[in-house]
Amino acid sequence: MEIRYSEKAVKQLKAIAKGDRKSAALILGAVESYAADPQASFDVKVLKGKLGDMKRLRVGKYRILFDEEKEVMSVYEVKHRREAYSD
Predict the structure, then answer these.
(1) What pLDDT is stored for residue 86 in this prediction?
(2) Strands, E assignment, the chain
(3) d(Cα 81, Cα 19) in Å, to the nearest integer?
């Protein structure tokens, strides 16, 4: 599966990497692993409400908001769990 990152997600990942390289590496690894095998056991949930039709992948203290269409995984945001659902 192809992975596409939004500009916002890239900016957020860079900010995370500045303060915590280990978490940034875990996030990228989890996204790549999910894209390679979505059927494996990951903590993924389909969101409801204003974020409907999107999914979230939980990686430690961070949440990756994304959606999938055919063979493309679009990553929109990478946020700390405190901020992930408040927009």
Answers:
(1) 67
(2) 2-5, 44-46, 55-59, 62-69, 72-80
(3) 16
Using an 8 Å Cβ cutoff, are 31 and 57 in contact? yes
**In the chain, what are the domains?**
2-80 (3.30.2310.20)
| pLDDT in the model for residue 22 | 92
CB neighbour list of residue 3: distance below 8 Å, 6 or more residues apart: 31, 32, 35, 72, 73, 75
The CA-based angle 8-14-18, given to 5 degrees, is: 145
**Does residue 86 contact residue 75 with C-beta atoms inside 8 Å?**
no
Residues 17-76: tens digit of each pLDDT = 998 899 999 999 999 999 998 888 889 999 888 777 789 999 989 999 999 988 899 999
Report the Cα–Cα distance between both ends of the chain, in Å, rounded: 28
